[in-house]
């Protein structure tokens, strides 16, 4: 009988991964990039946020956008359908 999984507990199915015989019982590095790159969103988006931009230069969200574009290209995703920007928006109210 399986135990119920709490909604706050991440679940993981090890049956999806095959560990080669030479690696069993030793150190194993999982290629998560290879697994994640199989999941291609139909309409990728980017969410860029910085809580404090005193001078309004948007350099923080600019760097985040460059990082998001690099990641999008590395994963071979299509162009972003939308880029959400929250510049100088605090999470504390």
In short:
The protein has helices at 32-36, 59-74; strands at 45-50, 82-87. It is of the alpha+beta class and 93 residues long.
Structural overview:
The protein has 93 residues and is an alpha+beta fold. The chain has a domain at 42-93. Helices cover 23% and strands 13% of the residues. The chain has helices at 32-36, 59-74, and strands at 45-50, 82-87. The protein has a two-stranded parallel sheet with strand order 1-2. Helix 2 (59-74) links the parallel strand 1 and strand 2 (82-87). The longest helix is centred in the last third of the chain and has 16 residues, at 59-74. The chain is elongated, with a radius of gyration of 19 Å. It starts with 31 loop residues before the first helix and ends in a 6-residue tail after the last strand. The model has no long low-confidence stretch (mean pLDDT 75).
Task: Please write out the topology.
Elements: H1 32-36, E1 45-50, H2 59-74, E2 82-87
Parallel strand pairs: 1-2
How many β strands by DSSP? Answer: 2
Query: Which structural class do you get from the secondary structure elements?
Result: alpha+beta
Shape: elongated
Q: Give the CA-CA distance, first to last residue.
A: 46 Å
**Overall average residue pLDDT:** 75
**Low-pLDDT segments:** none
Order of helical and strand elements: HEHE
Widest sheet: strand ordering: 1-2
Please give the oligomerization state of what you see: single chain
Helix content: 10-25%
In this structure, how is the largest beta sheet organized? 2 strands, parallel
Q: Into which percentage range does the β-strand content fall?
A: 5-15%
How big is the Rg?
19 Å
